[in-house]
Amino acid sequence: MPQQQTMCPGCAEPLDPEDDYCGACGLNVTGDAPTATAAPAEQPVTVTAPTAAAAPLCVHCGAAEVAADGYCESCGGAQPRPRDHQEQEVEGVAGVTDRGLRHHRNEDAFTVAATRLPDGEPAVLAVVCDGVSSSARPDEASATAVEAASAHLLTALRRGRRPDQAMREAIGEAARAVAELATDGFDTPGGSRNAPACTYVSAISAAGLVTIGWVGDTRAYWIPDDRESAVAYRLTEDDSWAARVVAIGLMDEAEAYADPRAHAITGWLGADAEEIEPHTVSFTPHVPGVLLVCTDGLWNYAEAAADLAERVRPDARTEPLAAARSLVEFAVGAGGHDNITVAVLPISPAPEATLRTVPLQSATAGAAPLRSSQTLQLHRPGSGS
Amino acid sequence: MAVLSRSHPSFSVDIFQNEYLAEGAREVNAIVTVTATGGGTSGGQPLAPVDGGAGAAVVIMVDCSGSMDYPSAKMRNAREATGVAIDTIRDGVAFAVVAGTHEAKDLYPGGGKLAVAGPATRAQAKEALRKLSANGGTAIGTWLSKAKQLFDSRADIAIRHGILLTDGRNEHERAEDLERVLGQAAGVFTVDCRGVGTDWEVTELRKIASALLGTVDIVAEPSGLAEDFQQMMVQAMGKQVADVALRVWTPANAVIKFVKQVTPNLEDLTDRRADAGPRAGDYPTGSWGDESRDYHVCIEVPAAEVGNEMLAARISLLLPQPDGTPEVLSQGLVRAVWTDDLASSTRISPQVAHFTGQAELASSIQEGLEAHRAGDVDLATAKLGAAVRIAHRTGNESTFKLLQKVVDVVDPKEGTVRFRKNVSEADSMTLDTRSTKTVRVKK
Lengths: 385, 443
Hints:
With 385 residues, chain A is α+β, with helices and mostly antiparallel strands. Chain A is globular. In chain B, the strands form four sheets. In chain B, strands 4, 5, 6, 7, 8, 9 and 10 form a seven-stranded mixed β-sheet that branches. Chain B has a six-stranded mixed β-sheet with strand order 2-18-17-11-15-14, with no helix packed on it.
């Protein structure tokens, strides 16, 4: 089912419905390219710029002189790269990432995947990581973390590991893989001396149970279908300066987030992380909705769960890829200051669960909710203020 | 295990820069480190030639002007030094000795030819040195012309190096004659220049060495000649590949502000550009053995929006092939990325900062000594004070020591200095000559 694209997958230029080629980079956007198809495969379908397009023209100056390394031989402009915009969809989960407008490369990485538990129940997952810009090779850090964590999650779930255990192990695997980048000898000369680092968030939906795990300020939200009588929640608590000062009562939320230090993170994956405290939370949703797993490139423009919920398409649960795209477009339209990544996991509770509806409870209004099977870490113990 | 292959070294290019620019910024600076390794040299020791053929040619030009007899030790030392240098020429290398006065004479082997080094020819050459006598004037252009003729007799040899020894000014030819010869010799062979005593002109020899991609140094004491000649010859014998060019591609509407070699010594190459296709130019780097050099490239690019990335320069090393198509030995990219993150855009690359400092060190010394000669002691003190401060801060110890022979350092950190009384001409000239010697960033 070819989907109408509203944005060029190559260079993020807005498209008109009748466009066969992108007006900016000349990319074929007719949808003959491999679009997202639903298949219960573990390997997600990756949609990137089709390579079959004719000799590319420079997206900046139009010269037909683009070198193999992606720079125009005339104006020197960097051409769109595969990671600038990517979309993935498998049955039950979809995600989109975009470079945005103000960063020169996409340092976010994500994957979505599906597998089956030993009893044959389907399980889907999404992993989203955001490279720390001030570290060396943040783009490699995020890609490495995503790969290590998703590989572990798929194997562990298939073998019947409890999701929360699998989640903590996966974060450990990701942390180890990212830390190893610091000593692999591939440092860019003259580059940042901070070890490669990224933040992490992932979600698993399996057998009615949702499990979220995170380190840093990448987030997960619960957005119910029925926004009138059910409430949207943020499921994660940032490892950030702002979250910490709010948690210990030094400032109120508005004050804290207005501070220039607000977004300084206090937890990350990387060789120089003092101590990695993977946070996990599990719950059983009883009403239909979606999980949003995203980087700050999105939530910077709609921080509160209720605000973000307004931007989520009503049919997000049935059209997760379209919902992820429209959220990315919303963030780009709002300024696209950072890289943006959104994964959408539809949740459709079994009918009997719906019957004994137990509404989600909020622990702290607007912040972390939930009766969680695990203690929700509000801040990292033992790492002074 | 013996190294059997003597193919040319492999080159690597590393770029050091802060690629992040603030909105509206246009200047991109990068340090390009070029390292040649694995060419089969053994720590600069002379090696047997490939297939018994001559891989290199050397012409030694010895000043025999009348002044070389005052004191007479000068001529004697020059003769000895040339003898030592001849002993260092490895078997199979083509060589000749030119006696230079107001005209040039090919002392050995004579007849406008190069000899091939071996036990017999080395002995004959040293025997011929006995005929060297000091008599006549100084016209360096004629010596270089003669050297060029000799090199031209062996078009098959790629690595061609001259050693030029003089003790005086180029008094017996017009400046434009020397200029013309330099133009003809550039790219044909390289020349290291040595000034003996203190009656020669630093700027004159620097100009010759610079045009012919060689070094210049002072040998204040004639007794130091032999050792210096030997070192120069070992260096020359270590070269394995000639005429390597640094090709700099820049995007449309970019301006190259400068291209400088910054180690082992400063050499402004900006005006040596030879156009090489659209938006590219070649800068000569001469011959290479196992060694590493740094270049500072400064480019002004058209400004772009925040979030954009541009290739500001593509830097490649090229080796000309017999068929005329250059072989690309290695390449590196200089990038420009516009960001609104001030922490990124205000960071200065330590390498760029360091070599900017080394260039400032050299110009402070040269301007300070010039001011001193012109009698402006205040300006001279200020300039040399600045030089002391930079030399101290950047750990350029050898230059710091040379400065101490000219000024008394009161406070190296602040650059407070006093001119010494009775500074010797030799110390002042040594400082001037070696002002362009740089050091690398302290690790």
